[in-house]
Specification:
- By secondary structure, this protein is mainly β.
- It is 2% helix and 42% strand.
- It folds into two domains: 150 residues, no CATH class; 293 residues.
- The protein has two helices and 52 strands.
- The strands form ten sheets. A 13-stranded mixed beta sheet has the order 19-22-25-28-31-34-35-37-40-43-46-49-52, with no helix packed on it. It has a seven-stranded parallel beta sheet with strand order 17-18-21-24-27-30-33, with helices on one face. A six-stranded parallel beta sheet has the order 36-38-41-44-47-50, with no helix packed on it.
- The longest helix has 7 residues.
- The protein starts with a strand and ends with a strand.
Length: 452
């Protein structure tokens, strides 16, 4: 321990080279915590806590080729440089070991400040590897390349979960409960039986990145596996199964949230795979959703970034926001189609099944839904606040609610469709007028039904 000295905590001067500083607490010194002057090839690493020093945490003066990593650094000013300081490394290569703040990998340093505004305290790790998603440039962009001092792998606030609990927590929910908003939860391979309630914005990621070996199955099948009601949540790399106890039990349920990222998950054997309830500005990437009663449920009124790397039943999700002049045809192999704030979209020759909606249009006009086979959804075709669209020659059968639903929709043409075996009505109307509905076949007694 080097504490409360009137000068520096530890000082290496005048060609003090090739020394190793490890496992020290260096705090409350008047000037610098660590001072390297004209010294090189030293290693300052592995669990040094450099905190609350007066001048700064670490100062380098004409010192080169030093290695400084896996330290906890928290001072009003963390670094100070004078003279020429070249070839210094502020991180090691990514190495699997529990780092100084409990993350799964050694890399750089944890950068804090006593007032809570340090880089590692206010920034996020969205990838879940325990490192911030931005480097820490200590000397500034105006320095020459050789003279730059950069931590390329600054540590993030991270908690570890593994099935045995030997590395950290044994249960993901325990780690979530103990962590603050903005933390990363890094999960080792294993099978976890949990229902996770997420009320803090944090990244929960599988360290392996593979849904094959990191599995979360519902402890209570009546409850969502992931119940997300905090914006800024990241869920990545899991197999998510077993929420099938009720018709609304869901693998991942987003409840009125934004800025969430769901990536590289495999979601299966739930009543609903992924459900977004009135949630906008979220991102979905490379999620494989299949073998659920309904794979993908969306309120269909808010814009999100959902590309075709996401699939339902092995077919891509087409989720268009603010697009015009697009055709989605047979070659697209689409599994479900959402159009939000779009114009002049053609959707044709598709087979769409096993989703809450086969086709959903919101605030979309001058579009065509033609010659599709739409079956075993909740609603086959759903139009809300949409006008001047044509639904022609579709086969719509065995949908649980309505074959075709119009809600607040006007001046649409519903013609030449074959609508059979709907659970409630062939065509359901709610606050919708001035639509042309003719020459359709429906074998249901309430083939057109006005809903309140």
């Amino acid at each position: 321990m080097a504490e409360a000295n009137r000068g520096h905590g530890i000082s290496l001067n005048s060609a003090s080279n090739s020394n190793s500083l490890k496992n020290n607490t260096i705090s409350s010194n008047t000037i610098y915590g660590i001072y390297l002057s004209s010294s090189g090839n030293n290693q300052v690493s592995d669990n040094n806590r450099i905190i609350n020093n007066g001048g700064c945490g670490i100062s380098l003066s004409n010192s080169n080729s030093n290695r400084i990593f896996n330290n906890y650094i928290s001072n009003a000013e963390n670094t100070y440089f004078e003279g020429t300081n070249t070839g210094n490394s502020w991180n090691t290569n990514k190495t699997e070991q529990v780092n100084i703040v409990g993350g799964p990998y050694a890399g750089g340093n944890f950068w804090a400040k006593p007032d809570g505004t340090g880089l590692s305290q206010i920034n996020r790790d969205f990838s879940g590897d325990g490192f911030l998603d931005a480097e820490n440039d200590l000397t500034g962009i105006n320095a020459t390349a050789a003279a730059r001092n950069v931590d390329y792998l600054p540590l993030a606030r991270t908690a570890i979960v593994d099935p045995s609990g030997t590395k950290g927590y044994a249960r993901i929910q325990d780690a979530v409960n103990a962590a603050d908003n903005g933390y990363s939860i890094a999960v080792y391979p294993g099978t976890y039986r949990e229902n996770l309630d997420l009320s803090k914005g944090m990244a929960i990621t599988a360290i392996s990145g593979s849904p094959d070996n990191t599995i979360i199955t519902a402890s209570d099948p009546k409850t969502h596996v992931f119940n997300v009601h905090s914006s800024g949540t990241v869920i990545s790399g899991f197999s998510i199964v077993g929420a099938a106890g009720t018709d609304s039990s869901t693998g991942i349920y987003l409840d009125s949230v934004s800025d969430c990222v769901l990536s590289n998950n495999r979601v299966s054997n739930n009543s609903i795979g992924i459900c977004r309830s009135y949630s906008g500005k979220n991102t979905l990437l490379n999620n494989k959703i299949s073998s659920n009663k309904y794979d993908f449920k969306d309120s269909g009124t808010l814009e999100n970034a959902i590309d075709t790397s996401n699939t339902v039943g092995g077919k891509p999700i087409y989720y268009l926001c603010g697009k015009s002049d697009v055709e989605i045809g047979f070659s697209s192999n689409a599994g479900t189609v959402y159009c939000i704030n779009c114009n002049n979209i053609t959707i044709k020759n598709l087979a769409l099944k096993n989703n809450p909606r086969g086709v959903s249009l919101y605030n979309t006009g001058n579009s065509r839904i033609l010659n599709n086979s739409i079956q075993n959804n909740f609603d086959g075709i759903y139009l809300e606040s949409s006008s001047a669209n044509t639904l022609d020659s579709n086969t719509v059968n065995k949908n649980v609610n309505n074959g075709i639903s119009l809600a607040g929709a006007a001046s649409n043409a519903v013609i030449n469709n074959r609508i059979t075996e709907s659970g409630v009505s062939g065509i359901g109307l709610s606050s919708s007028g001035s639509n042309q509905i003719y020459n359709n076949y429906c074998n249901y007694s309430a083939w057109v039904k006005q809903h309140q």
